[in-house]
Specification:
This protein is globular. The chain starts with a strand and ends with a helix. It has 11 helices and 14 strands. The longest helix is centred in the middle third of the chain and has 20 residues. Helix 3 packs antiparallel against helix 5 and helix 8 crosses helix 9. Helix content is 34%, strand content 17%.
């Protein structure tokens, strides 16, 4: 039987949540060991990248890895897996099923690809060589000694079932060959399938103009004299990546209806329709449009007037408001965390259109030297150095102190375009 690697999320060591994570993890380990299962504990004092390397240095075929983390955004629980991996999705579903069976009161949101997370990927899912999942528990902030054993028992049952399924296959490095379809034509060189993940030759990436050899955040594999990389890594470079299970084909698209080279430019024209924006909002929050039914229309109209890519502005709004949930940080018709010149409080606006207009104007202040078409209502427009941030990534550390802020907006934009079948 394969071994189980178990780690916890990287949150404050001294926090109550961290203590609960450690307590839960230790209960899971103790119960697994009592059932004669071999468990390897990922050291708590390692960084995320070092934790992944620690697992990769010690793992063998047939092993699995789970990271237990807290959902800081809500009380919902989800298991995250690598996209386009149907095998891993099945494992995530199995783990969650047995957890819910042990603790029915848990608010399960099902299994999800890691592309729906804030940064659009989870390193533990992407870079761990063995089958890996990340579970984000939404019940820890209200957890107590009565329910923690139930959660631990559910995780133990799920881990054992998942491990049995992985171990039941022959441990072999004779990876199966898969077809590669590039822009609707079969590429002459095949890829390989490893642990349910599609890998493509690194030489193909070079031919597409993408150099992954300078990145330490990707996992490369050498097989029979050829270097391969996970196909999904192309998604963050604005390629469309999907999987056709019946024909065992990874499908890549570089010729898209959107301009891949201009996707991160704040000034420009949006690509989505009002209906596509509405459906995206409702998919992520079914109550989103009850109070603001015309918000997608307003973003399209106001963005077009000032020459701002309304898709980017709309996605920034989704990020800032958590899909119009606001999470207790609501200021009247302020959809982008806009402040006042006094710095004393957040700005307020008399109607949604003015809130959207101010958001669009603030983006234009950062992205362009062009004058505004409409009268200035953005309270901090004149305090921004005009044109300092023409690209989304350059908003990091300016619009928000979060240095990954631009990455989060781009991750949201890719989700929007995928939902609209544009990416």
């Amino acid at each position: 039987m394969g071994r189980i690697f178990l780690g916890t999320g990287h949150v404050e060591k001294v926090s109550k949540i961290q203590r609960q994570l450690v307590l839960l993890r230790d209960r899971v380990i103790a119960e697994l060991q009592s059932r004669q299962w071999e468990v390897l504990l990922v050291p708590d004092d390692l960084s995320l990248s070092n934790s992944i390397q620690w697992v990769n240095d010690r793992s063998f075929p047939g092993d699995i890895a789970l990271a237990i983390d807290n959902n800081s955004k809500s009380q919902e629980t989800s298991v995250f897996y690598l996209p386009n991996n149907l095998e891993r999705k099945r494992h995530a579903d199995l783990l969650l099923l047995l957890l819910v069976r042990s603790f029915p009161e848990i608010h399960s949101q099902g299994s999800k690809p890691d592309t729906v997370t804030e940064l659009g990927s989870l390193a533990f899912c992407r870079q761990t060589n063995i089958p890996s999942l990340v579970i984000k528990l939404g019940c820890l902030s209200h957890s107590n000694n009565d329910i923690s054993p139930l959660i631990a028992s559910g995780l133990v049952n799920g881990l054992m079932a998942w491990s049995r399924e992985v171990s039941s296959r022959e441990s072999s490095e004779d990876y199966s060959s898969i077809a590669i379809e590039l822009n609707r034509k079969i590429y002459p060189e095949p890829g390989i399938l490893i642990n349910g993940n599609a890998y493509i030759p690194i030489d193909l990436c070079d031919r597409l103009g993408i150099d992954f050899t300078v990145s330490r955040d990707v996992s490369l594999v050498e097989h029979q004299g050829i270097v391969y990389i996970k196909a999904i890594e192309l998604r963050d470079r604005n390629f469309s990546v999907s999987w056709e299970n019946l024909s065992q084909t990874v499908i890549l698209r570089s010729l898209l209806s959107i301009n891949r080279e201009q996707i991160d430019r704040i000034m420009g024209i949006g690509n989505t329709s009002e209906v596509q924006m509405i459906m995206f909002l409702k998919t992520n929050n079914e109550d989103a449009l009850k109070e603001f039914p015309h918000l997608p229309k307003l973003y399209r109209e106001e963005g077009k007037i000032e020459g701002i890519n309304y898709d980017i502005a709309f996605c920034q709004m989704c990020l800032e408001t958590h899909f119009l949930r606001f999470d207790g940080n609501y200021s009247a018709n302020n959809f982008a965390n806009l402040g006042l010149s006094s710095g004393e409080k957040l700005a307020t606006f008399s109607e949604p259109r003015l809130g959207v207009r101010s958001h669009i104007q603030h983006l234009k202040a950062y992205a362009s030297l062009e004058p505004l078409v409409q009268e200035i209502i953005d309270p901090r427009f004149d305090f921004v150095r005009r044109g300092v941030a023409p690209k989304v990534f350059q908003l990091s550390g300016r619009w928000s102190a979060d240095l990954t802020y631009g990455d989060k907006i781009m991750a949201m934009l890719r989700r929007l375009y995928e939902s609209a079948n544009l990416l």
